[in-house]
Known about the structure:
It is elongated and about 165 Å long. The protein has 32 helices and 36 strands. The protein is α+β, with helices and mostly antiparallel strands.
Amino acid sequence: MPNSSDPTRSSTSLMANLAVERVLRVFAYYLIPIGIGLFSLIALLFWHNQYSVTEPAVLPLRVLQQPLDLGADPSPAAILARLNGQPPVPGYDTKLSERPVWFGFSPMSASVEQDVIEFPSRHALAIRCWDATTLRPLGEASRNHAGGAIDPVKAGFALRTARLPSQVLCSGTFAGPARVSVAQWPSEQFALSVEQYHRKSGLLDGGMIVLALFVLLTALINRQPLYVLFSGWLILNLRIGALSAGWDIQWLGQTIPADWLLLSRSVTITLYGIATLTLYQNLLRESLEGLRYAVPMRVMQWLCIPMLVAAVAVPYRVYLPMLWVICACCFSMMTVGLFKIIVESRNRVASWFAASFALTFVASLAEIVSAALGMHEVIGVINSVTAALASSLLAALAVAEQMRAETEKREEAQQKLEHAYEAMPVGLFTLDMYGHFQSANPALRKMLGAENFELGRTAWRHFFSENVWMELHEQVHGRSDAELEIANRDGSRRFLVSATLARGRIEGVLQDVTEKHKATEQLRFMANNDPLTKVFNRRGIEKMFEGAAASLAAGKPMAIAYIDLDRFKLINDLFGHGAGDEVLKQVCERMAMMLAGGQQIGRVGGDEFVIVMPDTAIPLAALICRGIVDRIGGTPYRVGDKAFHVRGSVGLIEVSPGMPMKDAISAADRACRSAKEASDGLVVYERHAAAFHEREAELKLVARLQSPNATDGLFLEMQPIMSLKNPNDSLNFEVLLRMRGLDGRVMPAGPLIGAAEKCGRASVIDRWVLTTTLGWIAENISRLPNTRFVCMNLSGASLNDERFVADTLEILARHVHVASRLCMEITESVALHDLDNTRRFIDQVRNFGVKVALDDFGAGYTSFSYLKELPADVLKIDGNFVVNINAHPANVAIVEAIVSLAGNLGMKTIAEWAEDAATVQTLAEIGVDYVQGWAVSRSQPPERLLTAASSASFIQDQELLDMLPNLGHGAALDLHGIMKLH
């Protein structure tokens, strides 16, 4: 049976342990520090000072700066003779002079055998002494060496002999604001003062260096660059204090070489000023923004680098006064700013730092005032040694306050972070290397629908598949950050997980992106597919084409088909777009039934489709397209109670390796247009079909026309136009454009004009033709006495180009004397496209005497209704009515009607495409005024027309030559007389 007193004994033992722990904590945290403080205070106030030193006796001096008339090295006797006339003084200020100073003094006779003479100036560089009675050298010493009875001691030098002379003569060299003085010490007291000197120096060095190292280590651990700057400032503060006390001749117990001493002082003071300014601005930046010190601070910054250069390059005696002036101004301004910040700022850290700076600045100003004005009593109140210790102590308090503030901020941030972790709307988690949850916020548990969630036991695999865990594990080990989209085990939800490997664990974020995933998939589908028919859109089919075209390099075939629906627009117009949309969907369904494998449909227009057929030979593709044509038009499409018939035309091409999609679709579209005229609705272009060569030639021609030298290779030919009233009395003709290719072959005008209109360069061509034609007429006007008019075609694109119209008027103005010979031909369809613009152009060119002809008249549908609106002079009857006119009586009637209409309107007629004498005979009988065609002549070089008397001069057909005398006997036609006035 267990002892009933065991629980009581255990409880008593636990309470005893807690009591002992609390007592020890009170001792360690409170009583020990308080005891140390009280013990130190008692020692300072009541105990004997081990290093207590009596003040030395200050001896009066007779001082003389080395006279210039005695040379660089005068004899002691000569100096002594002049020195005896000088009054005794307690000390002498060199005022930055570097000339040697001679001084004499008489030691106190009471204790000359035991005493030591000290020359305490820290600015002394060398001392030499003689017995003034016998002029026997007593010794000499500098910062580098010592000889005789003189040694470098403390900050200056000391004279120690077995017996001091009754009178001593000394010579010294000084640098800086030196004060020459002589102190007589009892030997024991002097030894004690030297010991005290080194003790204070060591305490200052050690304390400041330990504090600087503490701040530096704190800065490195906490990654605070401001503390690095502060630790450097503390070291420089130490050196400034050492300079004030004369301890700067050594560093860490090592004597600084004499050659470096003055340079080290200049550089130390300058660096201290730079570090102080930088620390001042960085530490108090926010407080300074409210003060109006921006410009002065900027000036001080610009002075830093020049002052550092001057500290190295300028002599010490010149540099020091410059430094005093600048430091006095800068320190005064900074001190004013500091006190203002202390008054206005409630930041205790800033106040401690400000107090530390203020103390240092006041001490520095005291040093400057005492050195510059000789007020050495100021240093007795405050100097850089006490200032260095006090300011460092204040700075340590500032560091402690800063650490306390940062700790509070860190704790507050930790609390906020914990709250944010709990309230975060995304899932936050931590996994161990085995996939067990080490932490999970409420949002994660809600996402995963986990009711019984046990940290350390619930695993990732409970919610996601093994493959997902393996992929996440590999990614976080393979790179620093991993991000992947995953699905839960049943696939109903999708998540985006971002994770990284930290301290041997996986830290991650889980977001529910189910809705976003659905929206993204929908957008991706909409980006590549037509929303109505669900087939590819143009972008989607282009991507599909690019992917399929890669197989061409492997030698696999590929075809592309272009489908256009006929009479589909009628459905939209009559029954609305709803019915049309339903028909389109059914069309796509029927086409899809004919496709297999990777063959895909793309909608590229309202009723136009493209089918890409990878790995499909052209015979098989043609068979598929034949089936598509039959399926599209085989049975009606039912929409509600209505039935619609739609026919499809298909252009099929074989795609060549390297063919761009735009070229492939262009060729397939051309084949589709040809298919509309074919009986079976299908046209196939195989790989080497002429259409591809035509397309290639067209592209080359377009590229040539788009170059800066678009008109290179162009030349003119002229085809005679013969009068049927007086064939032998006039030499009229039409200008025809030709181009000579790079291979020297002549290119017909049709492809050239077509390519120019497609690339927007038609106006360039027409401008060249107009300029060249008028120039040729002007040059040869005297050799063309029988030429009444010269016809020239204008393209529709040029007529609608405002710049071309303006250029045309300018060209006509330059050739106004021959402009009346020109007859501009405007195609009927172009003229009727914009009737007002055409009428305005005709009126403008007619002002220069230019005649206007309506070309291809009768080819359109609205000619007669608008003919009265156009002030044309000539009607050129469309050649389709003229060729083989005798075989088609209807054409005879149409031409006869046009001639009658033109005559009633005061216009003349020209019939083109007359190819034989019988056609010419019929046209003459109908009453046509002019005839043009191969029956009269083919096109001729311009120089040939200069040798002819009339257009009839070119006739080679004997039958037509025999007919000429009977064609007419009227006067020669002059179009000048038939121009209508509007």
